[in-house]
Amino acid sequence: MAIALNKTTTFLFFLLVNSLVSYSIQSLASPRNPNSLILGLTLASRASFPTYPKASTSSRKIVSIDVLGAKKPSREVRDGYLISLNIGTPPQVIQVLMDTGSDLTWVPCGNLSFDCMECDDYRNNDQLMATFSPSYSSSSYRGSCASPFCIDIHGSDNPLDPCTVAGCSLSTLVKATCSRPCPSFAYTYGAGGVVAGILTRDTLRVNGSSPGVAKEIPKFCFGCVGSAYREPMGIAGFGRGTLSMASQLGFLQKGFSHCFLAFKYANNPNISSPLVVGDIALTSKDDMQFTPMLNSPMYPNFYYVGLEAITVGNVSATEVPSSLREFDSLGNGGLKIDSGTTYTHLPEPFYSQVLSILQSTILNYPRDTGMEMQTGFDLCYKVPRPNNNTLASDDLLPSITFHFLNNVSLVLPQGNHFYPVSAPSNAAVVKCLMFQRMDDGDDGPAGVFGSFQQQNVEVVYDLEKERIGFQPMDCASAASSQGLHKT
Fold first, then answer.
1. Are 418 and 430 within 8 A, CB to CB?
2. Quick check: 371 and 422 in contact, CB under 8 A?
């Protein structure tokens, strides 16, 4: 009887542990919901760096000025998570970068006419360089000055100026009835990227992970870009503005979530990161930690949270600047959650304080300053490679924890802080800190929480309650549960 009881107890304990481990993943695998959609994001890396990451040349700043004086979001050409869009009749499949740091969705346009300057990293990747041809779509037409999207895309101090130049009369502008084409736009990104094109409307169809589940928008508004500088892939804007893809899909009233696969899955066509939009993204989240979403008076369309501290092991970085948790009178500050920026960026002198604490904590491994010069990262170490497992040395390095407002803490999963930047050699591997410093300047966010640090973390954007949740998760298992892993 005692033996039988022990077996039963052990079995029940196994069931309990198993249910706890799989709870968060199963919470994503909800039944079909007409107010939700589950999509897959492909992790793409630049062809010249297929396996190992490389530092960016500058941080992503929000503010940039286009030819009409409009403030625009900014980004750099780098690794990212791509979503497939089916645009036109018949549909043309275009992959674009999923970006929570901007609103505009745009695609490269023209068969041979699309011109992208300084895009050499992508030249040999036909999939990433695919273009949309409006002339091959029977449902494509140019956006007009009567559309509110035309005002949004130009966004100058006087939004009627562009259409006045295009020949619209004052009466048609006031009544929003001018049928003249919306003038061409130039959309400038703070890291130096620029796209130029025309506002276009066409049928958009996005396919969910389940067969037969799709969302169709007959008059989807997007930018048809004919020329670009350092912007080759196109972008699906997931900001909070009316132009964003999330808004036009009709899910912006509720929210969405994503679970980014680890960098080791880059360029793997057989598995995709879950992107959940609508009701399902917010179900079964009672046990999740949420931090308030900060609303910038100057940049209301983007996602900000407040950062209170960063802990390295058991040591907290001191003097966290107030700019990381609040805005100044002009709307600058806050920590921006941005899937379009690869690495987390922190302001000085706080960034240097974090580096100093890491250096004082990591005493057993030699720094590799040569690799720092080669990659552009600021802190690299030669770490033993136990059992020939490249990632097993993560536990030899101190953990890093982000502490947000409302007592929300996120311990970065393994591989999100230090990551190999070269092949193993002599039983050691060089790992670098995947953080960078913000560029000098007071405009825009004080810091950026990049996509690399969001790997294997479910990030929930609860737009109804204006809060953002973080929960460590095995995103590969989540992808399998959603039918996003081909075996």
1. no
2. yes
Q: Residue 308 contacts by C-beta under 8 Å, 6 or more apart in sequence?
A: 320, 325, 403, 404, 405
Cα separations (Å) of 262 from 209, 353, 414, 477?
20, 27, 10, 12
The DSSP letter of residue 486 is -
- 260, two tokens: 């980014």
pTM of the model: 0.85
Tens of pLDDT, residues 36-93: 788 889 887 653 333 466 666 544 433 222 222 233 332 333 578 999 999 999 999 9
Domains of the chain, residue spans: 1-30, 36-277, 284-481
Q: Under DSSP, is residue 134 helix (H, G, I), strand (E, B) or coil?
A: helix
Fold match between domain 36-277 and domain 284-481:
yes
In this predicted model, what pLDDT tens digit does every residue of 300-335 receive, in sequence order?
Answer: 889 999 999 999 998 887 778 999 999 998 889 999
What is the number of alpha carbons within 13 Å of residue 95 lying toward its C-beta? 16
Q: Are 225 and 106 in contact (CB under 8 A)?
A: yes
Dihedral angle over CA of 207, 222, 99, 118, nearest 10: 120
Structure tokens at 100: 């929570």
